[in-house]
Every structure is written in structure tokens, then in C-alpha cells.
Amino acid sequence: MARPNLGFRMEQRQQQQMLLLPRMLQSIEVLQLPHMELSSYLREAFEENEMLSLEETPGVPPPSPTRRGTLEDSQRHDEWLANQPAREATLAELIEAQLALVEAEGELLEWVRYLVGWLDEHGLLSVDDETLLAGARELGLAGEREILGPAIGLLQRLEPRGIGGRDVVEALLLQLNPDDEDYELLGCLVEQHLEDLARNKLPRVARAMGVELDELMRLLERLKELDPSPARGFATGASQPITPDVLIQPEGDGFEVRVEHAGLPALRIDAEMRKLTRDPEQTSGVKRYLREKLDRARWIVDAVEQRKTTLQRIAARTFHHQRAFLVDGPGHLIPLQMSHVAEELELSVSTVSRGVAGKYVQTPWGIFPLRHFFQTAAGGADTAARDDVREVVRGVIEAEDSAHPLSDDDVVEVLRERGIRLARRTVAKYRKELGIASSYRRRKFA
């Protein structure tokens, strides 16, 4: 008799695990989504689950509240989808639109479309001819070398200028206007002197070109108009504006910390659809299907609410410690570790990490990644946060004499005089993180 009983208990435990695991995964997934991704996630969930209703909230153009279940509801849902903002055109779509206006043989146009598939993220056609020809043969494209050259030439005449260049130099040259009075000088700079320009060896370049230093500086300003990555902005699509997940505002003698849900669509369980799960006229198969959908809908609704609660707790505790920043601004961060906040909130470190990941917070001093407020100590002082010390490094370099820029060793000495002790390699690391070139590349020539 013990065996059947034991088997029964094992079966119950297995069923509980199977029910619990998807719900936990749902909560984890929703917690780590930042505001904009959560907005997309909720709309996709609505499209996929008829047990959900969706209502837009202030912050986005508000269509009528949408609910499924009737023909009218379905039509409203389709209208809502049709009214969503159009996505940005891809590079391939932009090229296709231009090809529609080109008078050329269809065979040549097919080769151009084929070449578009070989463009890298910068818009360069960096693979060799043999690779391109081999791929064309596999696809059964007609023609060989006699059409490859004209196809590349046509691609390189399209917008944005520079696409299809075989390397950065050719991409830059393609962007030059032959009618420009500086065409020859700019072409000379691109073809012969890019390496010396990158090393800031401007006097050498000026002597080699037979021009004065002032004239070279003018040409360099013209050179900045060219883009070594002509497909910039197409590879990953248009950047989205940052939407803070947390807002912090002064309130009396303190600060209000709240999770921002404005602009997020509100998901709810559709009351009419829920009734169908208990409708005696529905078959058992239909009711089972609807109950599964209802469970998943509840998990999503609960996960969104749990995300809000967890993020609120993490943010409130974080800025309890970082109050000095809220009062006095950048430069007043204290070292703070996620493990410390996790222990205080009785959460796992992974939960805090997911809650912080990709989130932004709007403070009285501007918008910052929430991760910014978790800093390790730096500079030999327990109260000096790493990013604050890094900003001190930036300030020291910005105040230097550009004709005699500070070396990393010089910066170390200046910091030591201010009571901040850093190794030379740490200064070099911070400088690179800040996007600041080395001293010999920062030098400005009179």
C-alpha cells in the first residue's frame, strides 16, 4: 500500500513544479525588461492571448480601449494595430526604393540586390571578388566578372554615399565631390595620410602635402564631414529615446521615489472571455484551451505588478544610500554594492541585478542608468565612488594646456596632490573609458 501512496505524492510534486516553473520564468523575464521593451512585450502578449484586454495609458496616442471576443472588438483590435507607428526603413529597403528608379537591365539589378546582402554593418563591401562570385554561382545568378564590376559601380552610386566601398578609404573617397575645389587635397589626405592623421602627426602631413598648418586644419574640418561608416543608423535601426523607469522628485524635506508606468499599456483579464471558461455550452477541449490561456494571462498581469513592486523597493533602498547625490549632485556618490541592497531587502543578488539591468532613473540632476548608482570604491578612499574619480580624471585632462598635454603619469601626480591615489594603468583605463586619446594625440599644434 505504501508504493501507490509514494507514487501519488511524487506525481503531485512534479505537477507543482511544472506549474510553478513557467510562472517564475515569466516574472524573471518581465522584471529585467526596461520600460520601452516592456511596452513592446505587453503589446505582443495582448496580440497572442485572447484572454487579455489592452488599454493605452497617457504618454502615447490613446486608441480606444481594446477588448477581444466580438466582431466589433476584433475590428477595433485590427485598427489599433494599423495605427501603430511605422518602423524606420532598413538600408536594403532604401536601396530597393532607389533601384526602382534606375533604368538598367534586370540582371544587373539582381546582382546589386545580391551585393546588398554582403554589406557589413558599416555598409562596406569588404569581401573579395572570388567570394562574391562563388556565392553568385551557388544562387544561379547569370554572368560572372563581366557583370560584377558594373553591379558594384551601380551600388556605389546610390545613397547613402559611400556604401559598397571595398574599405574605409574607398568609402570616404566615394563621398567626395569631384567638383569640389578641395577634391584633390582631400583625396590625398584620405589615400595617403590617414595613418599619420590618426597619430596626430600634423606637421609631417603638412610638409608632405606642401601646405601650411592652418590650411591643413581647414582641410581636416572638411574631412570630418565624411562618414567612415556610411550605413550608420541602418544596421540597428533608429535609436529610441530613453524612457526612465524610475522618477525621483523633491518632496518636502526628502525625495519621492516611484516607478514610472505612464505610457505603458494596461493589460487586464478580459471579463467576457473569462466567462467562456465556465460556459457549459463549450466543449471540454475548448475550456481546457481557454483555461491554459487564462493562466498565462494571469501570470503576465501578476508579473507586471511584481516588477513594479520589486523595482520600487530596489530604487527606494538604493537612493536611501545615495541621498547625498540627490541633494548635492554628481561627485557625491558613495560606494554601494548590489549584494548590500539585496541583503537589506532579503532578495537574491540576481534579482537586484535583473531589476537594475537596462533601467534608467530620472533624478533632479538628469537621467542616469540605475546601474550608475552601484559603485565600487576607488582612489584609496572609502567614500570615493569609481565614476566620481573617473570624472575627476576627465576634469584634470580638460584643464590641461593643449599645447603640452598631460601624460598619464602627470595625471597620477595631479591626483595625488588632491588626495586621490591611482596607479598609472588605472588612469589609462579611465581615460580610455572616457574616450580620451593619449597625450601625444591630444596635442594641439600652433
Task: Summarize the structure in words.
The chain has 446 residues and is of the alpha+beta class. It has three domains: 13-72 and 243-374, no CATH class; 91-223, no CATH class; 377-442, Homeodomain-like (Arc Repressor Mutant, subunit A), CATH 1.10.10. It has helices spanning 2-31, 35-48, 71-82, 91-99, 106-116, 129-139, 145-156, 168-174, 183-192, 194-198, 202-209, 213-223, 271-276, 284-321, 323-328, 338-345, 349-356, 386-398, 408-417, 424-433, 439-442, and strands spanning 52-55, 246-251, 254-259, 266-269, 360-363, 366-369, 377-378, 381-385. The strands form three sheets. Strands 3-2-5-6 form a four-stranded mixed beta sheet. The protein has a two-stranded antiparallel ribbon with strand order 1-4. A two-stranded antiparallel ribbon has the order 7-8. A hairpin with a 2-residue loop joins strand 7 (377-378) and strand 8. Helix 5 (106-116) crosses helix 7 (145-156).
